[in-house]
Amino acid sequence: MADESAAEAAPPLLQLEGVAVDHGALRAVHGIDLAVHEGEVVSLIGANGAGKSSTLNAVAGLLPLAAGHVRYRGEAVEALPAHLRLARGIALVPEGRGIFARLSVDENLRLGAYTRRDKAVLAADLERVYTLLPRIRERLGQPAGTLSGGEQQMLAIGRALLARPRLLLLDEPSMGLAPRLVDALFDTIAAIARDGVSILLVEQNAALALELAQRAYVMANGRIALEGAAAALRDDPAIRRAYLGGTENP
């Protein structure tokens, strides 16, 4: 009980305060607040164009803020470039995977560790990735572009893990994957969370996202429309109608 109270009292690992993001002349995100605590999986769901990916890209440093603050481990990091945020433990697996098709699987993986100098620890981390993603070990010498969609997604996740993130940002990881591959993917994400990595997940499959997460936010038109315990949102009739395909509990 004391440990739970201490965890609740601790500042969030990630905290967004009044974050706004523009795309050209258009505002994609309108002053949102959001938090992820140590060891937590938080899902961000909503319709296409709601501002979810823009939020992740702003956290990772790929999009500038129009307003607000991104705090990581209590420190404002919005002025830091993306590579320094990665070095501090914020890793993004982007929508579309972002692999380098002509490079080998091994070369793609090692790009995730380009900020690291601890070669002995890196070797152990590679073994951990191979254990978590055994199909990747079997294909190290192949051009990454020859992998299936599911294997490419696993490669993108493995590459991010080699940065040793404390916070993993996942942007639509199941997009374009067959249902059987989605189940395997979410098993892998759950295993990563059990290892203590905090996760902020943007996911089109709201049912799976809410099943995996402890807490969730619902975005609409660039704003946070709802937030709360994932289980409570999963049982909310309005959420079920909008995102889960029905109003009745399963």
UniProtKB/TrEMBL annotation:
Domain called ABC transporter: residue spans: 14-246
Any one GO molecular-function label of the UniProt entry: ATP hydrolysis activity
Gene Ontology biological-process entries: L-amino acid transport
Keyword ATP-binding: yes
Superkingdom classification of source: Bacteria
Family: Belongs to the ABC transporter superfamily.
Entry protein name: ABC transporter ATP-binding protein
Lineage of producing organism: Bacteria, Pseudomonadati, Pseudomonadota, Betaproteobacteria, Rhodocyclales
